[in-house]
Specification:
- GO terms for molecular function: glutathione transferase activity.
- Residues 89-210 form the GST C-terminal domain.
- The chain is an alpha+beta fold.
- Helices cover 59% and strands 8% of the residues.
- It has helices spanning 13-25, 44-49, 68-79, 90-120, 127-132, 137-143, 157-171, 180-192, 196-225, and strands at 4-8, 30-33, 57-60, 63-66.
- Strands 2-1-3-4 form a 4-stranded mixed sheet, with helices on one face.
- Helix 1 packs parallel to helix 3 and helix 1 (13-25) packs antiparallel against helix 7 (157-171).
- The chain is globular and about 50 Å long.
Length: 226
């Protein structure tokens, strides 16, 4: 196996998802911290790898891949010792892909829309965007009513991706406490991921600090302009 480099920043849920997946796959990756606040993702060198200037980005001995879910699938396909995280069986794999798509399009996207509005938009809060975020919670809770994990009794790539997002969303005010199946699933995931505190929880706390700092900055901006 050649040298794998992952360009990342700890507060990013997609970056943390890839790191947790690599840990479960027992794949060693060289983490290359990419400081978005210093525009290190917009340098000519970085843009050659990813013109979208987003993280994470994987460099596997010259093969470059971005988009976290694509990276996780690639690592599982190429380096997985078995297919437990991403089954080879067509129907089982389809269920994992379905849950990954749910994560990206239904669960995570409304949160990102709200995040960018609050961080970069004209106000620290938008009620319409805010209300869209938890609409996926009852759907996700229902998905978990018959099993410990999203697609069965074993953790999969879909669980890992959702775990990174749910842990982040939950820590900034979107409470999952009223969804018992999600709460149960969350506990199972934290037990299933080795070194969970180091690989995910530290980044979650970084995310919360960043969230709080930007929200306060936006409140000050609104007061100044009023």
């Amino acid at each position: 196996m050649g040298r794998l480099h992952l360009y990342y920043i700890p507060f990013s849920p997609p970056c943390r998802a890839v790191i947790m997946a690599a840990k479960l796959l027992e794949v060693n990756i060289n983490l290359k911290f990419t400081n978005l606040f210093k525009n290190e993702h917009k340098t000519p060198e970085f843009l050659k790898m990813n013109s979208q200037h987003t993280v994470p980005v994987l460099d596997d001995d010259g093969f470059v891949l971005y988009e976290s879910r694509a990276i996780m699938r690639y690592l599982a396909n190429k380096y997985g010792k078995d297919d437990s995280l991403y089954p080879k069986d067509a129907q089982k794999r389809a269920l994992v892909d379905q849950a990954l798509d749910f994560d990206m399009n239904t669960f995570y996207q409304p949160f990102i829309d709200y995040w960018y509005y609050c961080m970069l938009g004209p106000a620290p809060h938008d009620e319409e965007r805010f209300q869209k975020v938890p609409k996926s919670f009852p759907i996700f809770d229902d998905m978990l009513k018959k099993s410990d994990f999203v697609t069965g009794q074993n953790i999969s790539l879909a669980d890992i991706s959702l775990l990174a997002g749910v842990s982040s969303v939950n820590t900034v005010g979107f409470d999952i406490a009223n969804y018992p199946n999600i709460v149960r699933w969350f506990a199972h995931c934290k037990q299933a991921v080795p070194d969970y505190q180091e690989l995910n929880e530290k980044g979650v706390q970084d995310f919360k600090k960043l969230w709080d700092r930007f929200k306060e900055k936006q409140k000050t901006k609104v007061k100044t302009n009023s």
